[in-house]
Amino acid sequence: MDVSAREAVLTGASIPTLMYEYRGVLPTRDSSVGSGAGASYMLETSTGTIGLNVLTRAQWRMLCSFLDRADIADDPCYATINWSTPDERLEEIRSAFQEALAGRAVEELFHAAAKARVSFGLVPDLKAITELLPHEERGFFTQLDHPVAGEVSVPGFPLCRPPWTRNLIGRRSSVNTRRRCAVHSTLNQGSRIWTNLIQNSD
Fold first, then answer.
1. Which helix (H) or strand (E) holds 72?
2. CA nearest to 140, candidates 112, 161, 126
3. Nearest Cα to 48, choosing from 95, 94, 110, 100?
4. pLDDT band at 53 (very low <50, low <70, confident <90, very high)
5. Where are the domains of the chain?
6. Which InterPro entries match (predicted)?
7. Which class for 67: exposed (0-12), middle (13-18), buried (19 or more C-beta within 10 A)?
8. What are the φ and ψ backbone dihedral angles of 101, each rounded to 5 degrees?
9. Which one of 5-9, 50-54, 153-157 scores highest in mean pLDDT?
10. pLDDT in tens, 123-153
11. Are 90 and 32 in contact (CB under 8 A)?
């Protein structure tokens, strides 16, 4: 299955986008993910950044247990944390989780969490993104000869095909012109067919 990078981003950002449009709320990337479901954060480890993500109460308890802080999940004080009305409790939990990660490496945490069925995510920097094994194996990045910037590395779109070359403002390629002509020709032919059908039906 091919999924374009843009489609993935739009799908992942749909909830924050709608929250702003309908309620004027600007949720941060490390806010909680729903009333009572727990809190999600991006936290620093000894070797990089890890993303902690929970969507349900069951996942919340699993996360707290994995970090040896089951007491947080059982504390009624934190039972009603909500991303649409963030308060100081989120920062209290962040501090507790950050302390629990002290001295642990990001790769070790990621794989240990996977075995415990806890949803953690790697948060690579720009350099690490280009070196991720899945990206290398799928050819996610492709060299593109840009008319101004020169040769640049860009994500493929979709993932298994080279990206399309975008024209700069004011430029039109012969390929695009031929495509437009083909579309108009097809539309005109279809219009003529419908006209003939209508005339013949009379």
1. helix 70-74
2. 161
3. 110
4. confident
5. 16-123, 125-171
6. CoA-Trfase_fam_III, CoA-Trfase_III_dom3_sf, CoA-Trfase_III_dom_1_sf
7. buried
8. -90, 0
9. 50-54
10. 888 888 888 888 888 777 888 788 888 888 8
11. yes
The verdict on domain 16-123 having CATH code 3.30.1540.10 is: yes
CA distances from 97 to 2, 23, 93, 174, 193 (A): 36, 29, 6, 57, 68
Cβ contacts of residue 6 below 8 Å, gap of 6+?
A: 157
Q: Give the rounded distance of the alpha carbon of 16 from its chain centre.
A: 12
Q: Helix H segments across 85-173?
A: 88-100, 106-115, 126-131, 133-138
Q: What are phi and psi of 8, to 5 degrees?
A: -65, -40
Encoded tokens for 1: 């299955």
Calpha distance 38→32 (Å, rounded): 6
